[in-house]
Amino acid sequence: MDIEEGTLAVDFEGRIVSYGFGELDLLQPTYTITVHKSQGSEYPAIVIPMSTQHYPMLQRNLLYTAVTRGKTLVVLLG
After folding, report:
1. DSSP the chain
2. Which range of residues forms the domain containing residue 66?
3. Strand 70-77 and strand 7-12: pairing?
4. Left if phi > 0, otherwise alpha if psi is -120 to 50, otherwise beta: which for 12?
5. Are residues 19 and 47 in contact, defined by beta-carbon separation less than 8 angstroms?
6. Best exposed site among 5, 11, 19, 20 by fewest CB in 10 Å?
7. Intra-chain end-to-end CA distance of the chain, in Å
């Protein structure tokens, strides 16, 4: 983070990308990303919370999409 320049550098697996402070809302930590936003991406490990309080989100197609995002490790919590 460079306060004087107003920038933040982010390391995406070896690729450094610089963001201005006004652009920080474009970043979203992957640990908070939704299944919908993750479509087309892969992650080394994912954790999928499964709660009956949100049973509409337990549809087979959404669960399949969530599980197939994990490269090495997928953990289902229920």
Report:
1. -BTTTTEEEEEETTEEEEEEGGGGGG---GGG--HHHHTT--EEEEEEE--GGGGGGG-HHHHHHHHTTEEEEEEEE-
2. 33-78
3. unpaired
4. beta
5. no
6. 11
7. 38
Predicted model pTM:
0.56
Asked if residue 20 and residue 43 are part of one domain, the reply reads: no
- Residue 20 has which token pair? 């201005």
Structure tokens at 31: 């640990």
User: Same domain, yes or no, for 38 and 71?
Assistant: yes
The reported pLDDT for the residue numbered 68 is 92
Per run of 10 residues, the mean pLDDT along the chain (length 78 residues) is 93 92 86 81 88 83 90 92
